[in-house]
Each structure stands twice: as C-alpha cells, then as structure tokens.
Amino acid sequence: MKSMKFFKFATLIVCAVFAVAFASCSDDDDNTPAIKFNPSTVSVAVGGTKNVKVAGGDGIYTAKSSDDKTATVTVDKATITVKGVKAGKATVLVTDSKKVTGSLRITVVDGVVVDKAKTSIAVGKEDVVNISGGTTPYTAASKDDKIATATVKDAKLTIKGVKVGSTTITITDKNKKTATVVVTVTK
C-alpha cells in the first residue's frame, strides 16, 4: 500500500516537472524585430559618404560590405556610414548580437549625387537638396522655371515652388556629369 502511494506521488511529481518544462518553452520565442534602413537604398559618389539610420534588431550592430573596394562601412550605434570608394554596386550586411540580419543595396557612382531624387513643395515654399560627388562648381537648371526655380550655392540646391505642376531640375558639374531631381509643386 505504501509503495502504491509512493508510486502515485512520484508519478504526480514527474507530471508536474514535465508540465512546467513544456510551459516554460513557449516564452523562448525570439520576437526580435527585423533590421530596417532609412533610406532603404543608397546612392553615394566616389569619395562621398552617406549616413543611414538602422532600426530593429536588438540595437547592437556590426556591418560588413560585400566589396570593400567599392564601398566601405562603419557603425556608430544606430547609424551606419557608407563611403564610396569606386563606381559599382555592393551590399552591406548588418547583423545584431542575436544574429538578426538586414541587407542594404549600395550604388557608388562616379559623378554627381543628390540626397533626394524627388521632392514635393508648396507654391512659394523652398526645399534644399544636398549635392555630392562630381567636380565643383555645380550649376542647376529647371526644365520649367514657371513651375519651380533652382539655384545652387556651394553643394546645396535650393528649389522654389512657383506654380502647381511637375518639372525636373538638372544639376551639372564642371565635367558635365549630371543628376536630376523630380519636383512636384502643390497648392
């Protein structure tokens, strides 16, 4: 009789241990968010740099370029800095301490680069676009000055909305290399 009670008690203990073990496993799921970038793709000039914000993962990042001869990368907390070395394409792989990864496509151009390929402004308002790469000085021309005007000072393109519509601004460097910005002017 005693051995039967002991057997029931031992069986109850073993069942309780298994129940606790199985229940605790459900909390082991990894809910670390995916790594994302802003901007999500990068175009940088040879010799130029571009900062990219990193979000997601656990916040402890390392980064590696697929081709250090095209683009190099450094990490400072949640910002990676991409430097263009030579014209071409590369991919930057960012990994956090839990091995969650994200990849960022990089294009390095041997010419003029703008930090915004498109912009939208209201009539009477201005927007500034940063220019890099190429050879200074830069000039800018609007395809339609009645919609938006463009002026360049140093490496800053200032676009002013004149009338509702769309136009294209072309930036040209000393060696006739160009970049464009599509402008939409709203009310």
Automatic annotation (TrEMBL):
UniProt keyword terms in alphabetical order: Signal
Signal peptide positions (record): 1-23
InterPro entries recorded: Big_2, Invasin/intimin_cell_adhesion
Record keyword Transmembrane present: no
Domain named BIG2: residues: 31-104, 108-183
Protein's name according to its UniProt entry: Ig-like domain-containing protein
Gene source species: Odoribacter splanchnicus
